[in-house]
Amino acid sequence: MDRWAGKVAVVTGASVGIGAAISQALVKKSVKVVGLARREEKLQELTNQLGKHKFFGVVCDLRSEADIVKAFNWVQENLGGADILINNAGVSTGIPVIDSDLDEYRKILDTNVIAPAITAREFVKSAKKRNISGHIINISSIAGHNAEIVQLPIGMYAASKYALTALAVELRHELGNTDIKVTNVSPGAVATDMLKDFLGNPDLFEKIPSLSDDDVSDAVMYALGTPPNVEVIDLLIAPRSSTSSLLEVRRKVAEMRNK
């Protein structure tokens, strides 16, 4: 990670959860972090915690192309451009595909697929002008590799994560003649507010085997810390759990599905 000291990282969805954990880890490694999120008060809290010359909160609606372009222009004008892009922001849903309306489809795909494409485009545009070595890391999901393991309705979520897997492959092909790496980090269940809200069942949330925010952040740091000749393609991480806890979760999931 030493080669990233003094460099600039853009982290989407930086204000809470995994994004905040990644931002904290990067700052500890002397990387300047620009955090993009909608909630200004949460960004300010993180700025106060990490330091105003280390973390820069930029209010950004990732469903707005104009907001994303404006944010990257701010990074260019104020910090000289970004060297690392962490596409962390994501949304999930418990609404089945067959019960969803068009707005629900678009909310998931706009945030989980279109936004990472736009941020990657703006990042690469700046990186090529400066002829730098860079790294794009997408926080994806095991659901983007094997949707069969998810036993609750997740609507367009898995489809969006499969798309993110393919997006990373396409970016890697397009950036083959550059010094920009592309990595997907694909965790299993992570104990975040998003998972809690998605499950809507505090008892199930407490019992489900899950990773922590820091577990995912550690995976990101590992990918960033690899030498220039090594590119981590996709890093799948999952919680270890006892058979009894898994059986209990599966039983409760079955009960929820049968209601």
Strand order of the largest sheet: 3-2-1-4-5-6-7
Q: Average pLDDT across residues? A: 89
Please estimate the helix content. 40-55%
Instruction: Tell me the span between the first and last alpha carbons.
Output: 49 Å
Q: Segments where pLDDT lies below 50 for 5+ residues?
A: none
Number of strands: 7
Question: What structural class do helix, strand and pairing data support?
Answer: alpha/beta
Largest sheet properties:
7 strands, parallel
Strand content: 5-15%
Shape summary: globular
Number of helices: 9
Rg over CA atoms? 18 Å
| SSE order, one letter for each helix or strand | EHEHEHEHEHEHHHEH
Topology of helices and strands:
Elements: E1 8-12, H1 17-28, E2 32-37, H2 40-50, E3 55-59, H3 65-79, E4 84-87, H4 102-130, E5 134-139, H5 157-174, E6 180-187, H6 193-199, H7 202-207, H8 213-225, E7 234-237, H9 243-258
Parallel strand pairs: 1-2, 1-4, 2-3, 4-5, 5-6, 6-7
Helix pairs in contact: 1-8, 3-4, 4-5
Model description:
With 259 residues, this protein is α/β, with parallel strands linked by helices. It is 49% helix and 15% strand. The protein is built from nine helices and seven strands; from the N terminus they run E-H-E-H-E-H-E-H-E-H-E-H-H-H-E-H. It has a seven-stranded parallel beta sheet, with helices on both faces. Strand 2, helix 2 and strand 3 form a beta-alpha-beta unit. Helix 1 crosses helix 8 and helix 3 packs parallel to helix 4. The longest helix is centred in the middle third of the chain and has 29 residues. The protein is globular and about 45 Å long.
